[in-house]
Specification:
This protein is mostly beta strands. It contains 2 helices and 12 strands. The protein folds into 2 domains: 89 residues, Beta Barrel (Elongation Factor Tu (Ef-tu), domain 3), CATH 2.40.30.60; 73 residues, PRC-barrel domain (SH3 type barrels, Roll), CATH 2.30.30.
Amino acid sequence: MKKEDCFYLGKIVKKYSFKGELLAKLDTDEPELYDNIDAVFIDLRGNMVPFFIESSQLHKSDLLRIKFEDVNSEPDADALIKSELYLPLELLPKLEGDKFYFHEVIGFTIKDKNFGDIGIIKAINDSTAQALFEIDKDGTEILIPMNDEFITKVDKKNKIIEVETPEGLIDLYLNN
C-alpha cells in the first residue's frame, strides 16, 4: 500500500494503559464512522505498515482508544506515539452534492463568475485558520479561501469548481 492510495485518519497522541492501548486523535468530523475498523496503516519511517486492531472505542469525542494486536507493553506502545494513521482511499465515505474531500479537487479548474477561468488547483492549504485553494495561473500562485459563500458550484464530473470571489481578490495576485 502506498501513501498516495490512502487518506490521513489521525495521529497517535498518547498511551492509554500499561497494556499497550493507545489514544489516537482523529482528523474527522464523524469519528463514530471509524469506531469499528479492523486495521489501519501506520507510517513507520516512510513505510505503510498494516496494524490489526484487537479492539477500539471512542474516547472523549474525537479520540479513539485503540488496542493493536501484538502491541502488549508500554515500550511497544511508546514506539508508536506520534505515528500517523492511514486508511485506503476506498474506505472514505462518499460525499453527496457539492461536498468534497481536499484530495479530490487537486487538478480541478477554478472558474470565477466575474473573472472567468482562474487556473488549476494544485494544493489545499489547511494550515491556516481558513483552508485555501492554492491555484496555479500561468506560474502565478493565487490563494482563494475555501468559503461556502464563495463556492457556487462543484462539478465533479467535469472537474470544475465555480466561485464568486469578492471584487479585486484575483487582481491582487495578478497586478504586481
